[in-house]
Design goal:
The complex is a heterodimer. By secondary structure, chain A is an alpha+beta fold. Chain A has helices at about 1-40, 55-60, 70, 110, 150-155, 195, 210-215, 225-230; strands at about 80, 90-95, 130-135, 165-170, 175-185, 205-210, 250-255, 255-260. Chain A is built from eight helices and eight strands. Chain B has helices spanning about 10-15, 25-45, 70-75, 85-100, 105-110, 110-125, 135-150, 160-170, 175-190, 195-200, 200-210, 230-235, 240-245, 265-270, and strands at about 50-55, 55-60, 65, 215-220, 275-280. A three-stranded antiparallel β-sheet of chain B has the order 1-2-3. In chain B, strands 4-5 form a two-stranded antiparallel ribbon. The chains are: A alpha+beta, B mainly alpha.
Chain lengths: ~280, ~280
């Protein structure tokens, strides 16, 4: 009886020790994994997610790493991340400089996704926001140097909307025009065709994940001219019209200078624009 | 009896012939390799019978199959699957309820080929002993992975899961996953017998939960004929499951009801007395 109780007691101690050991070991493993997972929450700058991908924080929980999008991409541009790559293992991405998204109209990669990782509500590829093109290097961009390269502008699937060429004076020559490629985030899908096509050794225009490429104004900022248009008129009190103290019959207009008021009774044949006192032969 | 102990199963080979004494092992290898080949003919020959991997696959543009363990993690991370994945989960759950939860481990999982190789080599090299861990550790790991998914909002376990890493790697590029697989192999070889599949793997632990209710079971209709040769214990990857059913502990029926029996059928192969058969949990 006594022995029995003793052995039961030691069995209980053994059980508790085993349990504590397992809990601690597994807890440590979990801690390590959790820290590792935190490191992989931000996408590296060269990796672009397929169209319709959820924001990165949600994507890693929704993507089940099955590779269906990779299989159904007709251009084979997608890869699954390998364990040594700095993003969630097994999640899909493409590298624009190697092979950009061809922007299929039927978006087969999204259709193939068995979860919501690639948002099935995306049916118009032009509305996808895989990333955002940024002209990162004005020192090597050929258009900035004064050439008419224009390649990024020409290859853009959303031509004249996502990239426009804005004329600027070429201060170096003093007589030529620079055609500056300007990316517009309201139209750029982040497909990466511009980066792929950029003819310089290292692309001057690159596609980055949105979180890297897109700035954001503080919430309290208001653009005066936008607000004015919305309100249908100025929101501040109108300026008081400036009063000029001029001789009778004269008026002053900004940009034009002094002039004789049309209601004035200047002598016939008098040169316009001269005060009465200066007219005639009195001088 | 000879001076050196005979290899487990030698009696069965003498009794039934080599083929009959390896029937289930051969069938199992055919299944494991066959499934890998089905996935491989796609990338190799552009013959797309199956797309995807064990996490989710789509066969002949008709049959979706999805891993319920993974979808559960995704759900806990706050993400809902689409319709095909849900159908896939239902099919997989139904399938393993039918054939036995951990049949996944013995008949499908590619890591089993690795750990079986480690175990075979371990026996060949006569390696004994090693670290001790409770077999219940895997349930702690399982709980940890689910908790981690819920807390982090991401599939934390998928970042290191050797099962999906190996399977996905074979069709999409292995990268450094080979190092993880080698680690599992060496762990099973030198550190702990049946260490990975039998003690740690949360995927197997999850499928064992399905296995609690599964239909297909190893039965022991002739358990009275057992001559205590211990061959079944020697080959069984989950030795603890045999004894209650074989010895009728606490009036246990002659059927292995333990959730961790993988239905690998190796005990059927190596038993010269034909104690074991495969059958359903119901009836005699």
């Amino acid at each position: 009886m006594d022995n029995d109780t003793k052995s039961r007691g030691s069995a209980r101690r053994q059980f508790l020790a085993d349990t504590a050991r397992m809990a601690c070991g597994v807890g440590l493993l979990g801690l390590g994994l959790g820290l590792y997972a935190r490191h992989a929450t931000a996408l590296p700058p060269a990796a672009i997610r397929p169209p319709g991908a959820l924001p990165e924080s949600e994507f890693a929980g929704a993507c089940i790493r099955c590779g269906m999008c990779v299989r159904d991409c007709p251009y084979d541009i997608l890869h699954l991340a390998k364990p040594e790559e700095p993003m969630s293992t097994g999640t899909p991405y493409f590298v624009a400089r190697q092979a950009p998204c061809e922007m299929c109209e039927d978006i087969p990669c999204v259709k193939a996704c068995p979860t919501g990782a690639l948002d099935h509500a995306l049916t118009d590829i032009n509305k996808s926001r895989m990333g955002l093109a940024v002209l990162v290097d004005q020192e090597t961009c050929l258009n900035f140097l004064g050439l008419r390269c224009d390649i990024c502008y020409r290859v853009c699937p959303v031509i004249d909307k996502a990239i426009t060429l804005e004329p600027q004076n070429n201060a170096r020559t003093g007589k030529h025009t620079l055609f500056i490629p300007v990316v517009h985030s309201d139209a750029c899908t982040g497909c990466g065709k511009c980066e792929k096509a950029c003819p310089t050794e290292i692309a001057a225009i690159k596609v980055f994940p949105l979180y890297m490429a897109k700035g954001q104004l503080s919430a309290h900022y208001r653009l005066g001219w936008v607000e004015k248009e919305k309100a249908g008129g100025s929101l501040v009190a109108p300026d008081v019209e400036h009063q000029y103290n001029l001789p009778e019959g004269m008026k002053y207009e900004h940009g034009k200078g002094l002039s004789v008021s049309p209601s004035g009774d200047g002598a016939p044949g008098a040169a316009p624009g001269l005060p009465k006192a200066l007219q005639g032969d009195r001088l | 009896m000879s001076a050196t102990p005979a290899r487990p199963g030698s009696e069965a080979i003498a009794e039934k012939g080599w083929l009959a004494a390896h029937k289930w092992l051969i069938l199992r290898r055919v299944s494991q390799v066959g499934i890998l080949l089905l996935f491989l003919v796609g990338p190799w020959f552009k013959l797309w019978i199956v797309k995807g991997n064990l996490n989710y696959s789509y066969t002949l543009d008709f049959l979706p199959l999805a891993d319920p363990y993974l979808l559960l993690q995704s759900l806990l991370a706050g993400q809902a699957p689409e319709r095909l994945a849900l159908i896939g989960v239902a099919i997989v759950l139904a399938l393993y309820l039918l054939v036995g939860g951990r049949s996944y481990c013995a008949w499908v999982c590619p890591v089993n080929l690795v750990t079986d190789a480690a175990n075979w080599l371990r026996a060949r090299l006569g390696l004994k002993g090693g670290a001790h861990l409770s077999r219940a550790t895997r349930y702690w790991v399982l709980g940890m992975t689910l908790l981690a998914a819920a807390l982090a909002g991401t599939l934390v376990w998928e970042m290191v899961n050797p099962v999906s890493m190996l399977h996905r790697g074979l069709f999409f590029g292995l990268g450094f996953a080979w190092a993880v697989i080698l680690a599992v192999f060496l762990f099973d070889l030198f550190v702990m017998r049946h260490g990975w599949c039998g003690h740690l793997c949360p995927v197997g632990a999850f499928y064992s939960l399905i296995g609690k209710l599964a239909l297909t079971r190893i039965k022991l209709p002739r358990r009275d004929a057992c001559n205590d040769c211990m061959d079944c214990f020697a080959v069984c990857p989950e030795q603890q499951v045999i004894r209650p059913a074989l010895k009728g502990i606490d009036g246990a029926p002659p059927v292995i009801l333990d959730a961790n029996c993988t239905n690998c059928g190796r005990c059927i192969d190596v038993c010269s007395k034909q104690v074991f058969v495969i059958g359903s949990r119901f009836g005699k």
